[in-house]
Amino acid sequence: MSLDLTQALIDFLRRWGELDLSSGAVLAAVFVVGGMVPVPRTFLVLAAGVVFGMASIPIIMVATTVGCAITFLLARYLFAERLWRLVERKPKLLAVMEAVDAEGWRIVALCRLASPIPSMIQNALFGLTRMGLWPYTWSTFVFTIPQIILYAYLGAVGKAALLGTGGELSLGIMAAGGLTFLVMVLLITRRVRASMRELKARRAAS
Question: What's the pTM?
Fold first, then answer.
């Protein structure tokens, strides 16, 4: 399923040719919408890396942040009542929101670096917290950068490997990059879980 989705995105982006003003606008629109719908950003970035290479990174960074901010604002000012009815039945989501209220941008940073919660759901949840738009926006922008760079790079290197222009070196670099990211995800996931446990302990003690 993930391979089919990535390939479909690659085919769509390839229709726009080389990266220029028009294709850049399309790419930006894809990532703005990507922050508002339940499509994994990983596949979007991989596809952009395959088609446009590392040059796509600045567009992805800005458009991703804009899409996240729009969803944040929609959740806070337009759909708050409806979303609260859904969230109240999900203790884990409530715990994340309480963590954001307690820790602020630090929890946003951890979630942006690595979280099992899809980006769209994160954006909506953060909109229901007391967090301000500015700290939410800058922390989203800054802490999505490592993931965006890595997956765009893997997409670009994967393309070179598939075309036979990178050879074994490209495959080795791609594998090393993937392993590094996996280690980073595991470390950050442990930290997120530790933060959640600390928050629950403080809440139980109060």
Answer: 0.75
